[in-house]
Amino acid sequence: MRPDILFDLDGTLTDSAEGILNSAACALQAMGRPVPPVEVLRGFVGPPLAESFAVVCQLPPDEIPRAVTLFREYFAQRGMYENTVYPGIPQLLQRLRAGGRRLYVATNKLEVFAQQILEHFDLAQYFVQIAGSDRDRPGQTKADVIGKVLAGSSVAPQSAVMIGDRHHDIDGAHAHGMPAIAVLYGYGSKAELAAADCFASDVSSLISLLLQS
Q: Most buried residue, 67, 80, 145, 207, by CB count within 10 Å?
């Protein structure tokens, strides 16, 4: 049994697309930039913000810091609460903790925002550590955030598993020699997540996988 379980946040624990898309649209509007269609903006959910503004919106490098600042201003006031917990997630966390598993969050979201969101939904209580990106360290990857968990705890990659919905989660886990479970109810396609060690189509499937592992 793998005692240590790392969870991504957006698209894995909560359905946060509305707040993220609204934050991105608000930032682009404030900069006088066109707002892409919703299906394009969904590319913001999961990757680091700077990467999303560069890849999804094709902003030039000198405009990205302001875009990130404007995004976070809206997100701090409203966007983080335009969010819902996936059905079954609280029960999953309760069962895992009751079974002696140690739970962690590893997210590309700013750590302070991740903490506030999980507290807002009364989920923070289940986690040993909530790790996210740092405001003063742009360019952090999911592998960097997972590294924070490994450095700040007794977690060993060979006794842990990462759970997420984007390729960043899978790649970040594998960079540390850690297996990864891809959840297909989030924002990444099965093709994007092809390198995952196994898949969970819904929260019920995830429960079955984790209780067996």
A: 145
